[in-house]
Task: inverse folding
């Protein structure tokens, strides 16, 4: 890495990375604690029971879930503009589209719909695997689940610490530990709902800062200031150093071989990190059943604006400003560490640009970190502690374990980030490598949750064989092309080979064995997991008490949300869990996801790739304007819509606060008295 530019004092780094002195880290942690206290005092939701802690009582509305998806899916890598420097405008497109549509949140909407249909009361996706296929499958897929969390968390720590160190000179070691610290505190206190509230506040500020950068670059900056000038600068850079593999070496073309290869790698890697990451399952679990699909579609579409517009703005600025006296020279290692955006922000706006980027990065890293913390805490609590150590754990024990595991995983993620840092693995390398390790689990996991015919051993063997094939393909290709050196800079072909082998072999073995030797699984077994109306034994047998007890059922109060006013919520929840409605939601998710996939991955980029078009000023300006409109629309859907849908809860909290101001204690939420039977 070239010498750090350090445009901010070290104190800014410590402040942002969680406050050795008062800083934004501590400010946000204190703010989240305040929100959690208000939630406990003025609403029926108390974070003092395990269901609320890990699943937010499965009651969260779609706007807030969408904002949580945007936030959890915005990593340091998303903002680091890694793909853009070498590839031009195709990089942001492939990054955004590959992680929005093909790989991730939109297709995941289908899985989320199936989750609500086939296991509406599960806490984790691994509980479903365990109930369906038993211990061996549970342990094998736990490997993929935890590996995903460790890889994603390490990328967050690596990307966050590299930028903080670069901008402020703060010690990377200190940054690795301080970044998760404040997050651990508010996640322990507030649980899942607090991470969603944190996601919301962070997403709001994130969009504000991104739009500030966009308007600086394309409207006010004396160095660039308009799409026309940006186009001119990019063409000048291309004429002195053309991009290999791009049409006429231009940056303003979708005809980019490296861009296309990156697109494929990106699609596979993001399949892996969303399908096997409990963080995204957890948002589906926390969501109200009737609106889960809407939340994922909204979140996916809103998220696209972040990598696309941000990289089209600061990533391209990092190229356009080459040679500018304020722009530092970036090495390949700097690019892989995710530093182009920071360098461009400093060159454009000096220390205020660097500070804004630091805040942006802090927001992205902390909210994605909170998602990973609560995700791993849930896996360790329900899939290790409850399943293997204390099957009869009480609610209090589960809650306590959830708290311990948040703290424990905070330490693990700091150490993992540090280890990767010291062995020289960069965020960019890990980003392109993640599909090699995790890709083989994607199809087997999707089949487990959606398809009654999925073959247990086919899926287990497929995921292990794909894992081995991915590693072998990556090693063999690296050795053949680079004389055996496993370089820390990103190499396209070995990564492509490893990613394709991993997801391909895993998917083929799982699907073919399931067609030849189909299972005939009854999803009633997974519907019984943690279901308050059905007794479920560890052996996987579900006893539907409702059926045994005849037509006149006296339903138990909803055990999943003991803090919530039982009967009303239970009735709403049962209505939303109507299988006909959930099947219709699945069909809607399938058609809309596949339609969007076709448009964003095939119909838009491929004709542009084959046509070899190089954009003129008008074309490039239209490209930028589409990004800006998309960003505004996204901001409305994940910033204003959640406020609108929660207007009743907000006014309830407001009334509670006002009452408390006049008579202390009178505003506290009081659950309605249960009416006694007539
Ligand atoms: N979440 C991603 N792939 O930026």
Result:
């Amino acid at each position: 890495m070239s010498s750090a530019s350090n445009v901010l004092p070290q104190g800014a780094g410590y402040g942002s990375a969680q406050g050795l002195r008062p800083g934004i880290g501590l400010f946000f942690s204190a703010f989240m604690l305040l929100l959690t206290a208000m939630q406990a005092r003025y609403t029926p939701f108390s974070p003092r029971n395990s269901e609320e802690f890990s699943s937010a009582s499965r009651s969260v509305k779609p706007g807030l879930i969408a904002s949580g998806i945007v936030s959890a899916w915005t990593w340091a890598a998303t903002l680091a503009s890694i793909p853009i420097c070498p590839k031009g405008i195709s990089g942001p497109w492939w990054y955004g589209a590959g992680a929005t549509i093909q790989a991730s949140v939109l297709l995941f909407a289908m899985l989320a719909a199936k989750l609500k249909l086939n296991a509406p009361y599960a806490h984790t996706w691994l509980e479903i695997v365990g109930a369906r296929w038993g211990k061996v499958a549970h342990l094998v897929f736990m490997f993929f689940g935890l590996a995903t969390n460790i890889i994603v968390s390490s990328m967050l720590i690596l990307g966050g610490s590299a930028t903080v160190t670069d901008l402020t000179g703060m010690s990377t070691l200190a940054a690795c530990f301080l970044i998760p610290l404040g997050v651990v505190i508010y996640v322990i206190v507030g649980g899942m709902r607090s991470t969603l509230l944190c996601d919301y506040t962070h997403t709001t500020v994130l969009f504000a800062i991104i739009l500030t950068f966009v308007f600086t670059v394309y409207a006010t900056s004396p160095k660039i200031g308009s799409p026309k000038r940006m186009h001119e600068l990019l063409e000048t850079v291309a004429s002195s150093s053309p991009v290999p593999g791009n049409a006429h070496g231009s940056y303003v073309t979708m005809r980019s071989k490296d861009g296309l290869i990156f697109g494929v790698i990106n699609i596979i890697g993001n399949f892996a990190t969303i399908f096997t990451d409990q963080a995204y399952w957890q948002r589906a679990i926390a969501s109200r059943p009737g609106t889960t699909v809407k939340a994922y579609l909204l979140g996916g579409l809103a998220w696209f604006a972040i990598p696309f517009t941000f990289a089209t703005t600061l990533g391209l600025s990092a190229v356009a400003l080459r040679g500018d006296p304020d722009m530092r020279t970036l090495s390949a290692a700097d690019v892989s560490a995710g530093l182009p955006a920071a360098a461009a922000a400093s060159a454009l706006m000096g220390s205020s640009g660097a500070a804004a980027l630091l805040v942006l990065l802090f927001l992205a890293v902390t909210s994605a970190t909170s998602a990973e913390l609560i995700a791993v805490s849930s896996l360790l609590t329900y899939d290790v502690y409850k399943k293997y150590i204390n099957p009869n754990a009480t609610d209090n024990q589960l809650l306590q374990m959830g708290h311990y595991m948040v703290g424990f995983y905070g330490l693990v993620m700091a150490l993992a980030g540090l280890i990767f840092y010291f062995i020289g693995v960069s965020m960019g390398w890990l980003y392109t490598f993640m599909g090699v390790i995790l890709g083989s689990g994607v199809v087997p996991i999707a089949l487990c949750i959606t398809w009654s015919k999925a073959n247990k051993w086919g899926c287990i063997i497929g995921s292990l064989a794909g894992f081995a094939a991915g590693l072998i393909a990556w090693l063999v290709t690296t050795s053949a092309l680079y004389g055996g050196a496993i370089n820390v800079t990103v190499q396209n072909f070995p990564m492509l080979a490893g990613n394709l082998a991993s997801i391909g072999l895993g998917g083929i073995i799982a699907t073919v064995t399931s067609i030849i030797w189909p299972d005939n699984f009854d999803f009633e077994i997974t519907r019984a997991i943690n279901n308050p109306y059905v007794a479920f034994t560890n052996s996987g047998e579900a006893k539907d008490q409702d059926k045994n007890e005849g037509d006149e059922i006296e339903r138990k109060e909803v055990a999943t949300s003991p803090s919530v006013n039982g009967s009303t919520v239970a009735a709403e929840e049962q209505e939303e869990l109507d299988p006909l409605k959930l099947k219709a939601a699945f069909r809607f998710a399938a058609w809309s996801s596949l339609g969007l996939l076709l448009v964003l991955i095939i119909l838009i980029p491929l004709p542009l790739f084959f046509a070899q078009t190089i954009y003129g000023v008008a074309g490039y300006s239209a490209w930028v304007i589409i990004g800006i409109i998309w960003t505004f629309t996204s901001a409305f859907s994940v910033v204003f819509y959640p406020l609108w849908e929660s207007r009743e809860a907000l006014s309830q909290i407001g009334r509670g606060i006002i009452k408390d101001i006049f008579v202390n204690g009178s505003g506290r939420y009081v659950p309605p008295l249960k009416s006694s039977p007539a």
User: Anything to note?
Assistant: The domain at 3-256+286-432+589-643 is CATH 1.20.1730 (Sodium/glucose cotransporter). Residues 536-566 have pLDDT under 50 and may be disordered. Residues 73, 75, 77-78, 99, 270 surround urea (CB under 6 Å).
